[in-house]
Amino acid sequence: MIYGLIGKRLGHSFSREIHGRLSSDPYELRELAPSELPGFLRERDFRGINVTIPYKQAVMPHLDVLDESAVRSGAVNTIVNRDGKLYGYNTDFDGFIMLARHASVDFRDAGVVILGAGGAAKAVAAAARSMGAASVRNAVRTPRAEGQLPITDIAAFKDCDILVNATPVGMYPDWQGRLVDLDSFPRLRGVLDCIYNPLWTSLVLDARERGIAADGGLYMLVGQAIKARELFAGETYSGSDVEMEFRHLMRSKRNIVLCGMPSCGKSTVGSELARYTGRRFVDTDEIVALQAGMEIPDIFSREGEAAFRLRETAAIESIAPEQGLVVATGGGAVLSETNCRLLRHNGILILLNRDPELLVPTADRPLSRSREELMALYSRRMPLYAKAADFIISNNGPVEHTVYKLIEYAV
Ligand code: NAP
């Protein structure tokens, strides 16, 4: 190994992708069992490695020199081999500060509560203090040190201004979980989650729905990786490099979810966009039909609209944890808050707006078989689509024009 990442399970890591864009040096993912860790570090057969769950503390006794960032955080996520000596650093500290700035969460004089007390939590605590937090406490399953309180004692945290999740709760594959109900924190003004898969956890979505500044951990991931690269190769990167890499990764991971009226072009534009960009295209109506073993009009006539909507939510739930998709939703899909929430974990919602006179009633669309039905549906639904959508793109011209606009703004 020249450069790489060690941890117990690395199947969903983005690190190789990020380091692959920063440098042509090989970057390898190496899963290690706990018993293999001491031998791997004794051999020192690498130039630089990143360390992830569950080894950020376990590696520390094996290192020759601990940088101040590692001592301050009580955990190491980057090891550099210089002439056979192993130097340990913590770049999660820097990554978290970059995330806080990116999300416009100001830690000055804030009462901060961190969920968890592991490797990331330690770096977050050190970063919060360095950004001027008035107090930092950890909410944990089992208190083991000063400043740690049981997470069940939620009343003790009600004066919290900023909440940070540094546990894996809410992370893929259990991507809908959350540890706390934000209604317990009346003063909350910022929520940051170290988790980046899904891009936005339930905790982040809960906060945004309450108008609280909130973001997931992707910026932190990119920031810590770039800091690690600086240490590996003695290179220097600027804030705009971090911003550029973040934007690239975010655009490649987030799903482009097309919503809008029946016959507005979601499936046609979506499949063309997927073809142009090499993404996977999914159509939620097709998934519903496949899972039901019958066509949509047959579901409506045999089971009714309510049963169709349940099937639609199940179909959306099955694709929502995936990333990098182009999704065409059924005409009524985003009228359900539940469906929008599911789609927002990894996606942005784009309303494809086609002028009503260009929409076409068809016999196979149960709610828009005639022009009158279609027009009534249009006036009822447009305000709801506009409310659900992150942005609106018109689709009145050739398909390629709409695809180019989507590539420019969203992909
Ligand atoms: P870690 O060292 O294993 O610590 C995990 C912490 O979460 C521990 O305090 C653990 O408590 C707690 N925890 C685990 N499951 C819990 C549950 N069901 N209920 C309550 N607490 C629970 O892991 P880590 O390195 O700190 O990573 C934590 C999370 O941050 C992971 O999701 C990781 O992917 C993410 N992370 C992201 C970045 C980034 O760049 N965005 C960087 C680092 C970490 P116990 O001690 O009681 O087990």
What's a concise summary of this model?
This protein is an alpha/beta fold and 411 residues long. The chain folds into 3 domains: 3-90 and 221-244, Leucine Dehydrogenase, chain A, domain 1 (Rossmann fold, 3-Layer(aba) Sandwich), CATH 3.40.50; 104-215, 3-Layer(aba) Sandwich (Rossmann fold), CATH 3.40.50; 254-410, Rossmann fold (3-Layer(aba) Sandwich).
Give the topology, please.
Blueprint: E1 3-7, H1 15-22, E2 27-31, H2 37-43, E3 48-51, E4 65-66, H3 68-73, E5 78-82, E6 85-89, H4 92-102, E7 111-115, H5 119-130, E8 135-140, E9 148-150, E10 162-165, E11 190-193, H6 202-209, E12 213-215, H7 218-233, H8 239-253, E13 255-259, H9 266-277, E14 280-283, H10 284-292, H11 296-303, H12 305-319, E15 325-328, H13 337-344, E16 347-353, H14 371-388, E17 391-394, H15 399-409
Parallel strand pairs: 1-2, 1-3, 4-6, 7-8, 7-10, 8-9, 10-11, 11-12, 13-15, 13-16, 14-15, 16-17
Antiparallel strand pairs: 3-5, 5-6
Helix pairs in contact: 1-7, 4-5, 4-7, 7-8, 9-15, 10-12, 11-12, 12-13
Bound molecules: NADP nicotinamide-adenine-dinucleotide phosphate.
Descriptive keywords:
single chain, 411 residues, binds NADP nicotinamide-adenine-dinucleotide phosphate, 15 helices, 6-stranded parallel sheet, 3 domains, alpha/beta, 6-stranded mixed sheet, Rossmann fold
